[in-house]
């Protein structure tokens, strides 16, 4: 393979996978890590990738935009279904309490809850609350505040005030992006504040996120990786990312 062909292939792979490490690229293309670093330097100058510690991410990996709820509902839906099913093992025992962050993967979790589940649920998601409202065995608390149309999540002072008094067994939290250096991140300041309080309120934090979000960074970090107990993701997670997250003390579950 000529250098130009390899560089094009590397750029396309990073764009598709979201993040690749130097070591994995060197093994995949049978070249030295020094050659890969030169390739990444060239691709970065051309605006195709952005180099990060140990590898590279797409040039647009750091972003301040977010897709709407409808678009996200249909993105990587099969992966989200499997992640939600796997995350259910971390629900507390009967009589326990959880907080569900707004999101399409957490929404899939609550849709699959048994009708006789004995659980106290706190959420800032209008769609999640609507799904749970008919379950008589669930003691449901919907956080007050302003509803963001793009995510249908309540945010603002009322939500933060309630979360400041809250203590739950488990927080199931979604994220727009996850990286070793930037932690969990999202583009909106109001949602970042609510997510931060959710993380702080729980004995155990379970993050549900498909692998396309790993290695990416959004504008605002709302929690460091040290705050995460479990990450439930899909089987396409890069092995280097998996190792780095385990080294951070996180239990990584693939679905």
Secondary structure layout plus pairing:
Blueprint: H1 3-17, E1 20-21, H2 22-29, H3 33-45, E2 49-52, E3 55-58, E4 62-63, H4 69-73, H5 77-87, E5 96-100, H6 104-111, E6 119-123, H7 126-132, E7 138-142, E8 146-148, E9 153-155, H8 157-164, E10 168-173, E11 177-179, E12 183-186, H9 189-201, E13 202-208, E14 217-218, E15 220-223, E16 230-233, H10 239-247, E17 251-254
Parallel strand pairs: 4-14, 5-6, 5-10, 6-7, 10-13, 13-16, 16-17
Antiparallel strand pairs: 1-3, 2-3, 8-9, 11-12, 12-15
Which percent range fits the helix content? 25-40%
Tally the beta strands: 17
Biggest sheet record: 7 strands, parallel
- Strand content range: 25-35%
Strand line-up in the sheet with most strands = 7-6-5-10-13-16-17
Order of helices and strands: HEHHEEEHHEHEHEEEHEEEHEEEEHE
Distance between the termini: 35 Å
Structural class: alpha/beta
Question: Please, what is the average pLDDT?
Answer: 90
How many DSSP H or I helices? 10
Low-confidence stretches: none
How would you sum up the global shape?
elongated
Rg, alpha carbons: 19 Å
């Amino acid at each position: 393979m000529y250098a130009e062909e390899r560089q094009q292939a590397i750029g396309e792979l990073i764009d598709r996978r979201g993040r690749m490490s130097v070591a994995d690229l060197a093994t995949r293309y049978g070249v030295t890590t020094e050659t890969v670093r030169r390739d990444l330097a060239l691709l970065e100058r051309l605006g195709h990738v952005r180099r990060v510690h140990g590898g590279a991410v797409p040039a647009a990996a750091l972003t301040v935009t977010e897709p709407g709820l409808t678009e996200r509902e249909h993105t990587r839906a099969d992966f989200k279904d499997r992640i939600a099913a796997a995350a259910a093992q971390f629900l507390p025992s009967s009589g326990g309490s959880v907080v569900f962050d707004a999101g399409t993967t957490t929404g899939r979790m609550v849709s699959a809850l048994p009708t006789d589940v004995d659980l106290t649920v706190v959420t800032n998601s209008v769609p999640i609350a609507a799904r749970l409202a008919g379950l008589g065995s669930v003691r449901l608390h919907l956080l007050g505040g302003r509803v963001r149309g793009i995510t249908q999540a309540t945010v603002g002072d009322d939500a933060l005030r309630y979360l400041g008094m809250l203590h739950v067994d488990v927080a199931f939290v979604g994220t727009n992006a996850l990286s070793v250096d930037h932690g969990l991140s999202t583009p909106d300041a109001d949602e970042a504040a609510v997510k931060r309080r959710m993380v702080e309120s729980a004995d155990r934090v379970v993050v549900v996120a498909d692998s396309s979000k790993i290695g990416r960074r959004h504008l605002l970090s709302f929690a460091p990786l040290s705050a995460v107990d479990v990450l439930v993701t899909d089987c396409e997670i890069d092995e280097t990312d998996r190792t780095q997250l385990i080294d951070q003390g996180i239990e990584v579950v693939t679905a």
